[in-house]
Specification:
Layout (H helix, E strand, L loop, with lengths): L1 H17 L1 E4 L7 E2 L1 E5 L4 E6 L2 E10 L3 E10 L8 E8 L7 E6 L2 E3 L1 E7 L19
Parallel strand pairs: 2-6
Antiparallel strand pairs: 1-9, 3-4, 4-5, 5-10, 6-7, 7-8, 8-10
Keywords: Signal
Organism: Parablautia muri
Protein name: Lipoprotein
Length: about 130
């Protein structure tokens, strides 16, 4: 339970540091992601269909493309729950790289996630997470 709320708290903390500004406009048929927890590595991830996206690094608002979907993070003992909006990473396929940001008035910062089968990072992106070592 604690690890699931870590995901929502991590996004919330990034928002507090960076201020908010983006407006999420969901498409007519948004992709609805679900959240999973990797207990062994201690992180939350997003998935839909056969695509699994793991946290890679923080992003800045100029990296965000169009809003493509959302994920509702359930409430638990550590969090009231939240809706996380999912954006394209400008210049990259949303089948490989996405951005998540919290709530309708999205923050200038959030998290870039990579699909687990992607083995090359975009220029300039660096991750300190062990699960992202290629």
């Amino acid at each position: 339970m604690r690890k699931r709320s870590f995901f929502a708290l991590m996004i919330g903390a990034l928002c507090l540091l960076g201020g908010c500004g983006l407006k999420a406009r969901l498409p007519e048929h948004p992709i609805v992601y679900e959240q999973g927890i990797n207990e062994e590595e201690g992180y939350a991830y997003l998935f839909y269909g056969d695509k699994v996206f793991v946290p890679y690094c923080a992003y800045e608002s100029e990296d965000a493309g169009s809003c493509i979907g959302y994920c509702d993070i359930p409430a638990d003992a550590y969090s009231d729950g939240a809706r996380v909006y999912i954006f394209e990473l400008k210049g990259y396929s949303s089948e490989e790289w996405i951005i998540e940001s919290l709530e309708q008035n999205n923050c200038n910062e959030g998290m870039i996630l990579r699909e687990v089968n992607v083995t090359e990072a975009p220029d300039g992106l660096v991750s300190d997470y062990g699960w992202n070592r290629f």
